[in-house]
From TrEMBL:
Region (Disordered): 154-182
High-level lineage: Bacteria, Pseudomonadati, Bacteroidota, Saprospiria, Saprospirales
Composition bias, Basic and acidic residues: 157-169
Boundaries of every Haem-binding domain copy: 13-148
Protein name: Cytochrome C
Organism of origin: Phaeodactylibacter luteus
Amino acid sequence: MSTLVKRALGGLLGVFVLLQFFQIDKTNPPITAGQDLLQLTSPPSDVAALIKSACYDCHAHTTAYPWYASIQPVGWWLKGHIEEGREHLNFSDWGSYPADKRAHKAEECAEEIREQEMPLKVYPITHPEARLSPEQRDRLAAWFEVLQASAGQDTPARLRKDMPMDKLPKAPQPVGADNPVE
Ligand code: HEC
C-alpha cells in the first residue's frame, strides 16, 4: 500500500472514531396515560401485535433502539426516521388528535399498508416480525378502515375484541318519571 492510501485510510478511521463521541439521545418521550391508540381502541390481539411490532418503533414513544443505533452515523439515520415518523403520526398521542384528524390518519395508515409503503422498506430487514404477508396487510388495513369509519369515538364498539354490547357503559338516562332527581 502506498503511503498516500495508508494516510487516507488512517484519516477515515480517525473520522469514524470521532463520530462515536456524538451519540444519539435514546430517551423515549413520556407517555401520557389514556392517549395510546391500542389502549383506546383495544384491537383483536393479532392486530395489536402487528401494529406494535411493525409501527410502534417509529410512530410511538416506545422505541426499542437496536444495538447498531450506538454506531454513528447509523444511529443518526435511525433517529431521523423516528423523529420524522412521530411528527407525521404518533400513536402515543392518538387520544389528543381531534376526530377528523384520527379519521384521516387511519385512512392514510390503511393506504400506506396496502401500497406497501409502510413499514419503511428497510425496517423489516432487521425486524423480521415486521415482515407482513399479504393476508396480514389485508387484515391490518381493514382494521384501520373500520377505525377510519368510527374515528370520532374513543372506543369504537365495533373494534373491541371482547366487549359484549351489554358491558358497554350505559348512556346517562334523561331525568324523568323513571329517574327522578334525588
Ligand atoms: C422505520 C420507521 C418506520 C416504521 C417502522 C413505520 N413508519 Fe410510518 N413513517 C415513517 C416516516 C419516517 C414517515 C414520514 C416520511 C414518509 O412519509 O415516508 C412515515 C409516515 C407514515 C404515514 C404518513 C403520515 C402523514 O400524515 O403523512 C403513515 C400513515 C404511516 N407512516 C403509517 C405507518 C404504519 C401504519 C406503520 C406500521 C405498519 C408504519 N408507518 C411503520 C417511519 C416509519
